[in-house]
Each structure stands twice: as C-alpha cells, then as structure tokens.
UniProtKB/TrEMBL annotation, chain B:
It comes from the Bacteria. Pfam families: CCG, Fer4_8. Residues 22-52, 104-134 form the 4Fe-4S ferredoxin-type domain. One of its GO terms (molecular function) is metal ion binding. It comes from Halochromatium salexigens (Chromatium salexigens). The lineage of its organism: Bacteria, Pseudomonadati, Pseudomonadota, Gammaproteobacteria, Chromatiales. Keywords: 4Fe-4S, Electron transport, Iron, Iron-sulfur, Metal-binding, Transport. This is Heterodisulfide reductase.
Amino acid sequence: MTSMDFLLFIKGPMFSIAVAIFALGILVRLFEILALGRAHNYAAARGNEIIPGLKTIYRRFNPDPGTFKRSTFDVLVGTLWHVGFVVVLLLFIPHIELIQSTIGIGWPGLPNPVVDAVTAITLLGLVAVLIHRFRQPVKRFLSTREDYLIWLVTFLPVLTGYLAYHRLINPYPLALGLHILSAEVFLIVLPFTKLSHIFTAFVARYYNGAIFGRKGIQS
Amino acid sequence: MTQGANHFSLERGLNAWREEIDAPVASFFSSCVHCGLCAQACPFFVETGDPKYTPIHKLEPMRLLWEQEYTVWGKLKKLIKDRIDAKLGRESKPLITDEMLEEWEPLLYDSCTMCGRCSMVCPVGNDIHYMIRKAREGMVASGHSPEGLLAASVRAVNTGSPMGLQWKTLEVQIKHVETATGLEVPIDKQGADFLVLLSSMEIINFPEYLEAITKIFDHADVSWTLSKTCFEATNAGIQIGSKDIAATLVQRVVDAAEELQVKNVISPECGHAYTAIRWEGPNAIKRAYPFKVYHIIEVLDQLRTDGRIKTEGKEMDRLSMHDPCNLARKSGVVQQQRSLMDLVAGDFVDLQEHGELQWCCGAGGGVSSNERAEPLKLAAFKRKKAQIEEVEPERMVTMCATCRTQLEEGLEEFNMDIPVVGLTEMIADHLVEKEKAEQS
C-alpha cells in the first residue's frame, strides 16, 4: 500500500465510518440521557426554568471572580486551548471546505498563518494542561486512564495537523492521512468517552440553570 | 452504621440509586472531565487539602452504576467482562461492594454539607449537590449512613423532634415568653394566616427567637399560631437521605396546617428546614400543598415592604452577615435579609463572597448531627473564619440556628470575640412601641 492508497482509504471509506459512528454514537448518548427524564416537581416554583437554564449555558464560560482567583491556570489555559482547538477546527480553510463537502454549509476562514499560530498555542496549551494534570494533586488523584487517553486523542489531530502543514512528515499524503486518521479516531472515541462533554455539557449546564432557576437563583 | 438490620442491603441501596438516576444526573456524569475545579469550591477540600474531598469524587460509586447500566458503552464493557470471566471460569467481581460504600460513607456525609457551592462553579455545569442528595438515598437503603444522623431520624419519627424535645419543654418556654412580653402566644388557632414552625435547636439554644416573632407579629398585627401536634420544622429524613422518613415528617406539617386551615406556613431561622418544606416536601408526599411556605426572613421582608414593621434606632457597631446556604444559594433568598439589615444596621459590611456564592459554615446537611464529623466540621469552618477576618466585623448576623451554633462554636474555638446574633431578634429589638407607631 502506497501512502496515496493509505490517504485514499482514510479520506474515503474510513471517513464515512468515523462520521457514521460519531453521529450515531452522539445521538444514542443524548437519547440515553434525555430518555431518563425528570420526576414531576410538585413544589411551587419561585422562578422560571428555561431562561436561567439558557443563561447558565453561557455563564459557565465565564467563571466567578473567586474561582478565577483560586484556579487561574485552569481557567486561562483551559479556555485558551479550547478556543484554539475550536478556531483551528472551524476556521482553517481546508477544514471548512471539508465540512462544506460533507454537510453543505460553509463559512469564511482565517488566513493560514493565523491558524498556524493558533495551532502552536493550542499545542503548547495542551502540553501545559497535561503537565498540570500530572502535578496538581486533585487532578492527579481524579485522573483515570480514560482522562489520559482522551488527552492523547485530542492532542494527536492538532499535532499531526501542524506537522502536515509544515511538511514535517513525508511523503505528504502520509502526513495528511495520519492527520485525518487521528481526527477520525477523535470522532469515533468521542461519543463513548468524556469527550462527549462537547455536547452533553450544554445539557448539563441547562439542567443546572433550570434546577437553580426554579428556586429563584441564577447559577 | 453496621449491617445489622436486615431491611438494609446493598441491593436495596443500588435500587435506590436506580430510582434516583435521571436525565440531569446522566448529563452531569457524561460531562465531567475531571478538571477538579469543584474541589476549589468546597470548604472541606480547601481547608484540608485532601483530594479525596473533591466533590465529584464523592459520587464515584453512583457514577460506576450509571456507567454500567445507563450507557451503551458501559453495558458493552460489562458484557465483554462477563464473557471473559465465564471463559476463565471465574466469578464476576461485583461493581459496587459494601466495603466500597463504607469507604464512601464519610465522603458523602462527614465532608459534605450539601451546600451546593460546587454546583455553582463546575465549568461543565454539574449540579453536584443535587447528586449528593440523591446518592444519600442509596447510602441509607444500603445501611451506610452515620449513627448520629440515624439516631436523629429515629428520634424525629418517634418523638416529633430530632433532639427528642417534647411539647412540655416548649410550653415552659411559651410561658416565659408570655410573662416577659405580656403578649399571648397563640396555640392551635383555627384559620390563622400563618402557622409558625420552630426547630428544636432553636428552642434549646435560641429561645430569643420565639420571643422576637411574638413581638414582631403583635407589632405588625399578624394572625399566627403554633400547633401543638406539630411544631418541628426540621427534617432529618432529608439530611440523611431517606424519602420515606422525609415524607413522614413533612406529612405531619401538612396535617397540622390543613387541620388548622392556615394559608401559610413559616419555616424558622433554620436553613435545611426551609429547603425541606419548601422544595423537597411536596415531592416527598407527591402532591402540591394547599398553603404557601415562607422562611421567616421572607415574611419579615414582606411586612417591611408593606410598611407594617416600624423600627427606631440602629445598631452602630460593625456588622457582617452569614447567608445560610439553604436560604441563599439553594432557595433564592438573598436580597430580603439585606433589606432587613438596612432597617436596623448602621454599619453593615457584606462578606466578600456572599449570596449565591457564599461559603458554608461547615455544619449543614447533617454534619452537625454526626459526631464523627466533628473534626471536619471545625476544619471546614476555617473558610468562614477567613472570610470573617477579611472584613473584621464586631458581630455576625445570621438566620439559621445551625449556622449560628457553628459560628459561635467556631469563633470561640479560635478565640475570636465576635458574638453572633439572629436577624429576627435584631429586628424585634428595634420595633417602635405599638402605641407610638399607631400615633405616627
């Protein structure tokens, strides 16, 4: 198998399989959460549920000052690499072209050098949070194999993308193939691991805001 | 607690969890990425530095059950594991054991007041205290709840009071109040607007409260009553995590209120009693109440808004305030106590993190009834102490008997000469005499 065959396989059948597992997996995940429902609440409500629920979805991007002070590294570096990851994923022109050819929607991207710089920052951020996970007592205590696995699964697409863009792996079809493969692994693993927080965190935040909102508190 | 009584079993515990796992719980467990930020929101972690007190870790056994039984991936993993075990001819290891729950008992009870601060901070939005409350149901059903809390629950069911206090004791106090004030304390008055509930701890430690509301309600012409059959507002069932006990205790309040045909029920200066009756009670008995429930602070603030409370003079020393978690963060009563403070305080300063982000005193959620938790309770108080030191008040004001006791004991332990007062009493101390108020 040449590197071109490899790339064609990764871009072709493998891509379809990954997207299918991802889409189906995430639907199942959301279904198995939402299908559990909530018991009827007989207590007279003090406040609304929906608006505070939606507000909490937004508000948890923006921690309270005390949390920021006590967990400055987590907030800064955590936000930095998450934003970097999303920017690179959604604003790199070849990615947008791929999305457009897959689901038919596109949008303008950022110039390549900008995406390149953001990628480098994201990589550094990811390395920093890994070191932090090893060293900070609470994180080290909580961390399971899954946490390290999803770190790797998140890190690899960014790293291989960076290497492919700078032609640091040769031949190029192999570099691109590895990058797409790592993204496919990310997609396949996502619904079955904590990576599903990409979707479920919005559900969780909504419920949090709704539960507190009913009692008249904006959480 | 030991595994003596045969109506407690691991299987019953797991079944209780199965009943408790709902869509929010599943979304929370699905979302946790082990960032550990909840630890920084927890006074028990912050003051001990021990990672095992990280709030989300306290839920690990319940999470294991959720993963295995409520996710496709978990079911698949179990299937594969069982196959391998069968092939090798060995018995499958149980996912959750009694030993495990025994290890988690102090995490779910001794080091958690269900204050809900972690729930406000979690970046993915997990309402952790909502899950702790649910997890305790399984702990009780499996026979892994603390002796102290269990004894309080048994006393509450048998005598009506978690401290075993009887009407006779309250009656003596009522007589004292009547003598001291020259006013009548109404008992079993049909059709009163408000049924007033008390907490045993208040009756024993802070008899001033009953005197204060007697004066305030007379001043504001409020129609109220006590009930001889049910004067206790607290609910040990909700602290320990037993819906059955909770329902039994709530039903007593509902029966008394319905018998006297009152329109409203007032929960005393006690935090958990309020959340118990206001939010959990209707769900425990599975029906809406035919009356409304208020915390005394809400009632006082409404009287203030209606112009029915007239005060004179102000406290001139530097005062600060502790928001009970159950009242502020967990019930949305934040502004009311501050409006009341404005009436009577000349030099009030808020703690830096207050209202929905206040820090727990360390004694709520049953911790104060659990003797084993004593050292942790004092450790957690250090966060409150640090907050108090930042603003250097001469006195602290609060509106929960458990918080107040904890503040008093904690401040004394650290040789800090800062008296603690209840807000209701402070209001009562500044009432304009009735005749004078009527003239003006």
